[in-house]
Write a structure and sequence with these properties.
Its main location: membrane. This protein has 27 helices and 44 strands. With 1057 residues, the protein is of the alpha+beta class.
Length: 1057
Amino acid sequence: MLEFLLASLFSILLGIHTQEWNCWVTRQLFHSLKTRWVPFTHSPYLCVPIPQNLVEAAEEADLNHEFNESLVFDYYNSVLINERDEKGNFVELGAEFLLESNAHFSNLPVNTSISSVQLPTNVYNKDPDILNGVYMSEALNAVFVENFQRDPTLTWQYFGSATGFFRIYPGIKWTPDENGVITFDCRNRGWYIQAATSPKDIVILVDVSGSMKGLRMTIAKHTITTILDTLGENDFVNIIAYNDYVHYIEPCFKGILVQADRDNREHFKLLVEELMVKGVGVVDQALREAFQILKQFQEAKQGSLCNQAVMLISDGAVEDYEPVFEKYNWPDCKVRVFTYLIGREVSFADRMKWIACNNKGYYTQISTLADTQENVMEYLHVLSRPMVINHDHDIIWTEAYMDSKLLSSQAQSLMLLTTVAMPVFSKKNETRSHGILLGVVGSDVALRELMKLAPRYKLGVHGYAFLNTNNGYILSHPDLRPLYREGKKLKPKPNYNSVDLSEVEWEDQAESLRTAMINRETGTLSMDVKVPMDKGKRVLFLTNDYFFTDISDTPFSLGVVLSRGHGEYILLGNTSVEEGLHDLLHPDLALASDWIYCITDIDPDHRKLSQLEAVIRFLTREDPDLECDEELVREVLFDAVVTAPMEAYWTALALNISEESEQVVDMAFLGTRAGLLRSSLFVGSEKVSDRKFLTPEDEASVFTLDSFPLWYRQASEHPAGSFVFNLRWAEGPESTGAPTVVTASTAVAVTVDKKTAIAAAVGVQMKLEFLQRKFWAATRQCSTVDGPCTQSCEDSDLDCFVIDNNGFILISKRSHETGRFLGEVDGAVMTQLLSMGVFNQVTMYDYQAMCKPSSHHHSAAQPLVSPISAFLTATRWLLQELVLFLLERSVWGSWYDRGAEGECMELQGHVLKSSGILVHSHETIPRGVGDSGDRSTVVHLSPCVAFSHHLPHSWLSVCDIILGHRHSMCHHHHPMTSCPPVPPCSSCAVSTLCWAHVPASQKCLPSLPQTKEAGPAAAVRHRVPRVRVPAGHPGGQRDHRVRALPEGICGATDSQQ
């Protein structure tokens, strides 16, 4: 069947020409992205939101609004809407609010005709400032609705007020937490802080003298934590504690400022909690240290290169500090000083206020924990005044984040978003000089929508596009894995939005790509890369060309990756619309649902159309308003015509299969580079073994926005005509049972003028049982010269395996071994194959993996155990020693009786999964190993076994057949006691299998390299605090990582699998 598929496609594809497209696709793609990603254009298809009209509407509404101290106004409070009292009446501010589930908003109940208002619990919902602000912002409702009608790809639009309320469109109901508290405060969000202020360098000085003990120290710590929460990736910070002397709470950061990214902020928070009070507070030394750091960074043009400030947190200042300001800050006052008086005492209030007011800062007193939030936020208004006075409406874009962050109480989707935001200022003449910030407007942009602008079909089988920020963090990348599984639930990783470009493109050892992209350069470079597939179990070796450029008016850079070889070329062909339409209407044909053949999410009449339905309506000109990618549609038409004979053949083949004959093949399938997918069932749908295959439920088997199907990608990197086999589980790859079906796929390549392009991939899905029977039958076919088979795979003392090119078992006598790595089943055989050169060990790194922290005790003393537990532990140890003793005597006696005659011993070992991936060696394979010149496979695995079986040539071109004695390794007359003991295993959180390293003269088991578990933590680089010091560019700094080892995080492994 597969041979016919190939022959048919090759005959049809004759005469098709190829076109080199590296430069063409990059130039066209960049032009498209740079044109359509400009944030504030008026193009008919808006790929990003336009908050400019929201800013204008909000400022105009404030200009026309007169503050009314006694204003009475009812509004839709997000928490109270649809709530009733005991009498069944709607509560105050909780009128009836129509909510309907909307798929565009993660299936949340929303109201797309109006917005609602949310307030945190600590903000009074009828405060005059709140009522006037809510009343004024009612004017935004019409703009919200207009924006969404004009561009239905928009998600959330909102206005965050400086007074604390949050107006969000579409309107939703907000659910408090389990304690009935609403903790969400828009003024704490990164988008608000970044839009309201400019980048800043901050040194926090905290008094840890004896007078700060008790509640005062608790409030001081909470104040520092709150300040840290107001900082973002474009800010730089350090914390200094002082009493009799000055000390940095992180000694590694002495004398510098570090980037306020999430890692560093969390690291500081942990250190702040460990602060202890003692001694006498001497503030002038701390102030002098702070000013020196800020001055050095300013002169070196490092840090944020913008605002600078000192945050002084103390219960008072008594010594002479004025000379410090005279030397370092007066008369220009380039560094603002903000003072926070801790506690209820007011004795030193005048001095703290004097310090702030004479250094262009702000003074506030924090007497309770509840006061912290509001008082800390005041410094943002001070830093925003220059922007407000100058009316600098700077556009900001945030790092990637989950939408469940915003709607933690309700959102079910974990889509990655970025926010585009702008500040809103008061334009009233009487307040213009005061620099009043009204708030910030913003809108969420789904990164998935942005990446749709990088057409998948133009990037080829292994090509992809990615985005990163000016800080080097990934916004979108096919290898970005922001979620981890906890039980049956998927949860965001703690550092999901701070994954560095060097952690996904880790082959860029010189960091040339990273440096160029964060410096917003345009260029290209090439790298040899190892690409993991199939959840890290397999690897491809590719040479990739990287093209990169900046995206105008954003802090983002775009990268496009194209693979060399067949990835450099594209197939072109022409066909008539009539002929193509006829073949497109076949019921077993489908198009990639995530690809954009036609724009269906703008016009409400198009939203219910599938991509295939939209293409047909476009070709028939049934809907003249439908916009489609004409180039992609032409390719789909051509692919439909070329592959149409496959359907006819499959249908005829299915009809010729009698009901009595064995139903071997479940389905045949075919995919093309344009995302066209054909499939044909050879059994009833109810009898299909793997019903998830080729469905959206199984993303690895279909065309997605990020990648081609796994079977397509694997086949494309093997010679056309050679088949790639993959095992599949009926319940999915996470199933604990044995695989039931196997897919075999091969690539269809066309070569013209020595230029090869991959046209398609074809394959079948068959029952694994059939493949196994074929194999067992083949092993019984001995040549007539040799006579009857003296030994067969059916013999009880032989283990026979068929393994794929990455060392995973396709066929084994024991069904539970199928699909497992050969090293797990028999580590000795895998070690021998490695030493013979059949496989090569490949080291891969996964810097996004997570490890569970190991349990530990803070005390060095042993934990107490009960007498029963101690007794059971001792009993278990005695039984283990007894069993080992008996086994040792039995094995020794067996060897001794047989003298020098070799006998094989069964070795039970368990080799855990690792990040080391095995691939076929590209070196010359030793004679007698896998030599298929005479259509036989001869494997020498030990001095006492060497068998040769004649097998069909087709088997040899597909698999590696391993025939060996039971566990394959032989031991001569040397008792086990002559081998050195196995060293104890490491106590690392990642399990390690230990093997004895024995001199070769002792002829013990060959040593196996240590193998570390991959699982969810394949190979992990330590997450460490980052010190980002700029190098002449505010966004182009490289981080100097402090090699602290956070507990429970495992190091990268160099291991075999």
